[in-house]
Amino acid sequence: DLDECAASPCKDHQYCLNTDGSFSCKACDASCVGCTGEGSEKCKTCASGYVKEDEKCTDIDECNLPEKVCTKENQDCVNTSGSYKCVCSEGFEDKDGTCVQT
């Protein structure tokens, strides 16, 4: 078997999987920018919103940072994979970018 992966035939956001007589390109984990294999522990570097922890790229919980990311009144932070979103607190709704009581 010839290792086609030695020539790095895949795109930046993929890793090469050598198979018998061939190869396939597989997508890197969402937490990676470039990777050498499957999973968040094989990242070359971590994607935005992720940090290297115990040799893995793990999600940063922006909602638990010392500096508040959702600064508008009556707004709650919801952590998402690699990011976060600001939503109006319960009993409030978004009216032209302001959370007003419903």
TrEMBL record:
Keywords: Disulfide bond, EGF-like domain, Repeat, Signal. GO terms for molecular function: calcium ion binding. This is CRE2A protein. Belongs to the CRELD family. PANTHER family: EGF-LIKE DOMAIN-CONTAINING PROTEIN. InterPro entries: ECM_structural_protein (IPR050751), EGF (IPR000742), EGF-like_Ca-bd_dom (IPR001881), EGF-type_Asp/Asn_hydroxyl_site (IPR000152), EGF_Ca-bd_CS (IPR018097), Furin_repeat (IPR006212), NOTCH1_EGF-like (IPR049883). The lineage of its organism: Eukaryota, Metazoa, Chordata, Craniata, Vertebrata. It comes from Rhabdornis inornatus. It holds the Pfam family EGF_CA.
